[in-house]
Amino acid sequence: MTPIPYEPANWKERIVQMVLVKQRLEEVDTEGLWEYRLPRVAASEETLQQVEAAIGMPLDPEYRDFLNHAGGWPAFYQSVDLFGPDELLGSPEFAAAREALLSMEDAALAECGEAPRNLLPIAATTEDLDLFLIAGPEANTPGQVFWYAGGLIDTFPTFTEYFLAMVDYNREEIRRLEGKAAGAPSQ
């Protein structure tokens, strides 16, 4: 499958949007359920080249462009960390995510139609089963992001769509916590 040409995103605007959503979420999280962190400083071109050499494949252009603006994001969605160069160059979190990918059953991976060698962990949590994988350039669906948590939860056609969906998932968490604070029954 031929990848969809990438039109550079306005990552500064999208990152600010997510920061504002996360700030609001922190305000309504009166029980301190989640950690709230800002994205890391942008990765340099030299660092991104080191990452590509370390992982043995080019980074997806959208993910790479994001890393040019933010070098990863701890606690991006609940306890899920969005990996940056610090992780991709060999952190324990990345090693655990790679191990989780390699230990996935064939039936689970069959849902996405990709071989493990064509998938790169880009986000994960050590507190739960959530693992986010992006299809590499040799994959059947380059750039597609897959969300696993005991099985395939969701797919996103591009890294940008994944990012925007996580903004929306954080907004849903705000609505859930606002409803809980107002005494609404939890769902």
Automatic annotation (TrEMBL):
InterPro entries: Knr4/Smi1-like_dom, Knr4/Smi1-like_sf. Residues 42-165 form the Knr4/Smi1-like domain. SUPFAM superfamilies: SMI1/KNR4-like. This is SMI1/KNR4 family protein. It comes from Actinocrinis puniceicyclus. The lineage of its organism: Bacteria, Bacillati, Actinomycetota, Actinomycetes, Catenulisporales.
